[in-house]
Amino acid sequence: MKLNELTAHEILDLIRSRRTSISEVYEAVTDQIQTTEKDVRAYVRLNEKPCHADALDAAAVPVPIGIKDNICVAGQETACCSKILAGFRPPYDATVIRKLKASGAVFVGSTNMDEFAFGSSTENSCYGPTRNPWNLDCVPGGSSGGSAAAVASGEAIWAIGSDTGGSIRQPASFCGVVGLKPTYGRVSRYGLVAFASSLDQIGPLTKDVTDAALLMNIIAGYDEYDSTCADMPVPDYTQALMNDVKGLKIGIPQEYFVAGIDPEVKAAVTAAIEVLTEGGAVVEEVSLPHTEYAVATYYIVATAEASSNLARYDGVQYGLRRQPAAVRKNPLIDMYEETRDAGFGPEAKRRIMLGTYSLSSGYYDDYYLKGLKVRTLIKQDFDHVFREFDAVVTPTCPTTAFKIGEKMDDPLSMYLSDVYTISVNLSGIPAISVPCGFSKHRLPIGLQILAKPFNEEMLLRIAYAYEQRTEWHKRRVFER
Amino acid sequence: MNQVVQQKYETVIGLEVHLQLKTETKIFCGCANVFGREPNAQVCPVCLGLPGTLPVLNKKALAYAMKAALALNCQINSFIKFDRKNYYYPDLPKGYQISQYDNPIASHGYLEIPAEDGRVKRITIKRAHLEEDAGKLIHDEGTNSSLVDYNRTGTPLMEIVTEPDLRSSQEAYDYLQNLKLTLQYLNVSDCDMEKGSLRCDANISIRETGDPCLGTKTELKNMNSFKAVKAALEFEERRQQKALESGERIVQETRLWDEGRGATVSMRSKEEAHDYRYFPEPDLVPFVVDEGVIDTIRRSIPELPQQKYKRFRSEYKLSDYDANIMVQDADVANFFEACARLYPQPKKICNWIQGPLLQELNARKAHVRDLRMTPEYLTTIIRKTDENVLSNLAAKEAFQHVMETGKSADEVIEQKGLAQVSDSGILESVVEEVIRDNEKVAGQIREGKESAVGFLVGQAMRKTQGKANPKILGELIRRRLLA
Is the pLDDT reported for residue B130 higher than 60? Predict the structure, then answer.
């Protein structure tokens, strides 16, 4: 196997035992980029070759990493794949970036995403779509599609994404990698360009569960710059990788296996559950009765917050500014309208309008407030289940990766792609997606594991035990 | 407008005051909170609202606002929640203002103002909440462009809203004066309208006296002094009266005070009803303030001006006028009390403070704290005057020297030889001398022209270079010539 196809922990072993160097690993990654990036288009910007000392301290994790284009890196363009932020260079590092820099991370580049993380296919990027490395006609999922595709194709050893309604887990599932959405408040959001502030969370996309634990060790923890970040100790997540699920109670929500699920996905997930049962887990059917309202609730709450979060892109301080030649209303209003019309793509406009509507006086009670109430009910469903169960297992997505362009004219069917991932964000709980099979068209299928808040260790424990019993995570896209 | 018309209507006023809290740092970031620095010199990614940044509440700002609210007799809401108020303006970098909507930190308070019959009137404070200030637009005539200064962005603001309890422009003025005084006592805001640390919008309507329903109100903005608030309200009151008298309807609108023209002017924009689309600020987690914390804040509130006024009236028997002047500045009031404790002659102390001391302060644009005069020195001067050691003139001189040199009153009196000569032995010989030198005048006095005594006293004073006690001199002269 080429160096860039290895996991981070394998590479660290090689570096620490001096069987390879950071430079060799970095070169393997950039060689891969040379070869496949023209097809995959995982990155929107590649960094200059980084200067790094080959001799680092023992705790360093000098692993080439891809960063989603919505996480601020000081002095480097961070545009959320939107024309409206073109050229914006934040003067500060996101907390996650600061932690990664301190760990010795090697930054490869900025990965593609749906504009402002609005989407499930990475097609809503102002730079054009990323392609699924397993099948270039298919989407990589989204919105962290660039990060997932980069890891799957070996163009990064691992990557950082963000997840508001499934944006780490769904592309992980589509690209056959591991994606973890931490508990809301486990990882600082400072420096993550906000989509929906009460739902957004940064997390890792990796080749296996061990890497997810390692990356969580770097990025998790309290941050005084984020009031929503929990002031709780961070465990060593690698300690959770104990290959033991004996006696764990795992719930299977009946609502997740109904109409709309691809039979191949259903079969793969059912087989995966069987693996856990064989490992000694106690599997029982559970009910999450408010699941059917999750998508509707999400698109009210998330768009409401987004409409407000995106108000700052007004052409005044940074990014795009357009002024029409002739005065229409008054120069200021004209500038706002022209800038936002030119700067936002269709999905961003759709969500801004949706959110503005549901917050408007006269509609607030029926939409936003109702949405918050249903959100509480959805969260209570999980509270109830987790009183008795250690984890819940579901498919990550109802289908495998769909064709590029297939759902672009049908936003609603695109939104339904997140039907299994959205409740997790609404409830603030952590979840992980791990590869659990392939379709007959050689497209990956993902298994989603959910646990109670701040119990990422449970996710990692079950995912690791599953991984130890299967080979899916060892498949590489370009292996011949 | 004739008086009949004025009496026909009752004026109803409510005030919205925005107060900048003088915390060291801004409300949601660590930037300094200072007025008057060069544009955009105190900004950071957070107060600039750069993508990815998040607010973190400055607990000091919350404590200041709670202190003010407690001093205004408000009920404190210990559940703290912020909301976003969404609107577009170039001085608002996030496109929303972090404010408080349905859950203000305080409500149901009141502030007392003087009423006509010498009693007090309570003005109900409907609510008070905490929010962030916006930046400032600077219009550059030269280039016909607008620039934004974000220094002010994120300054902690407290909005204090009254019920429509005020019935005249004078009451509005008194309310603002008392509010300012109270808040200055708390040291939470400079309350300087000219620097924008206190801003006031006024809602005003009129109705026929006795009508229980409120008339249509207008909102007045752009007043930059308390006097301007008063003048704008007076203008608007008359404008509305005239309008109703001539059968017009009042239009609900915002009107700007034009200081130059002395008139309110309609903003003319067909105000689309603003929809601020308030919703809970997801970046700030709601929390509950510990009762203990609120108690600590409550205990930190000093005696407030209204209470102090009442106490000065009863404890020191000061007149209404004197008590009022003594409480206008907490430091002056403390100075007065310190003096009164050292030398229980409150009226005399009060006169000294009102006269020479405040004159000096105003002339030097200084503050009591900065003065070299201490309560010990001032009471020494007053006491020595009472004891006839100092003449009034010498006392004033001693006062000036202490102010200028910072030396103690005793030292100044000693060094400058300001003490009066009261030793009758010494003075008798002076009197003898003066009578000898002015036989003619002495003769007139002997014949009963008592008014001439003053002339001889003056001569004796000159001989002693002003140090003699004129009272004793007068007595000696009288005894010598009239007995």
Answer: yes
**B266 C-beta neighbours (distance < 10 Å), count:** 11
Q: Which of A282, A277, A283, A280 is nearest to A257 (CA)?
A: A283
A81 vs A42: CA distance, rounded Å? 12
- Collect all residues with Cβ–Cβ distance below 8 Å to B59 and sequence separation of at least 6: none
- CA A181, A185, A188, A191 torsion: positive or negative? positive
Q: How far apart are CA A448 and CA A446, in angstroms?
A: 6
Q: Which residue has the tokens 């339904």?
A: A416
Per the CB < 8 Å rule, is A311 touching B45? no
Residue A144 among the catalytic residues: no
CB proximity list for A35: less than 8 A, separation 6 or greater: none
Q: In chain A, what are the domain boundaries?
A: 3-242+430-474
From the number of C-beta atoms within 10 Å of its C-beta (0-12, 13-18, 19+), residue B474 rates as: middle
- Calculate what percentage of chain A has a pLDDT beyond 70: 98
Quickly tell me which residue has 């932690």 as its tokens. Answer: A99
Chain A contacts of B28, Cβ < 8 Å? none
- Are A304 and B94 inside 8 Å of each other by CB? no
Sign (positive or negative) of CA dihedral B146, B150, B152, B153: positive
B105, B77 Cβ separation under 8 angstroms: yes
**Interchain proximity A90–B51, CB inside 8 Å:** yes
**CA separation (Å) from A473 to A13, A201, A267?**
19, 24, 18
CB contact B94 to A (< 8 Å): yes
Q: For residue A202, give the nearest of A168, A234, A152 by alpha carbon.
A: A168
Residue A417 among the catalytic residues: no
Alpha helices in A320-440 (DSSP H): 331-343, 346-359, 370-386, 411-415, 422-427
Identify the closest residue of chain B to A363 by CA–CA distance: B277
* Ramachandran area for residue A284 (φ above 0: left; ψ -120 to 50: alpha; else beta): beta
Count helices and strands (H / E) in chain A.
14, 11
Which ipTM score applies to this complex? 0.96
Mean pLDDT of B446-463: 86
Inter-chain residue contact B45 with A90, CB threshold 8 Å = yes
- Beta strands B263-266 and B279-280: pairing type? unpaired
Tokens representing A409? 């004219």
Mean pLDDT on B337-343: 95
Pairing, β B287-288 against β B79-80: antiparallel
Our measurement of the distance from residue A383's CA atom to the centroid of its chain's CA atoms, rounded to an integer in Å, reads 24
Pairwise CA distance, residues B347 & B317, whole Å: 8
A249 belongs to the catalytic site:
no
What residues of A are in the B interface, CB distance below 8 Å?
A: 70-72, 78, 80, 85, 88, 90-92, 94, 189-194, 196-198, 224-228, 304-305, 307-308, 310-314, 316-318, 332, 336, 356, 359-361, 364, 368
Distance CA B152, CA B27 (A): 11
Average pLDDT over residues A408-412: 83
Domain spanning A3-242+430-474, CATH class? alpha beta
Is pLDDT of B271 > 60? no
In the prediction, which pLDDT does A480 show?
Answer: 45
Tell me the domains of chain B and their CATH numbers: 3-293 (no CATH), 303-416 (no CATH), 424-482 (1.10.10.410)
Cis ω on the peptide bond leading into residue A361 (within 30° of 0)?
no
Spatial strand order in the sheet of B198-208 = B75-76, B106-114, B120-132, B156-162, B9-20, B198-208, B218-221, B254-258, B263-266
Q: How far is residue A390's CA from residue A283's CA, in Å, rounded to a whole number?
A: 10
pLDDT above 50 (res B466): yes
Q: From the candidates A143, A144, A188, A439, which is the catalytic residue?
A: A143
What is d(CA A442, CA B117) in angstroms, rounded to the nearest whole number?
92
Quick check: A248 and A386 in contact, CB under 8 A?
no
Phi/psi of residue B258, nearest 5 degrees:
-105, 100
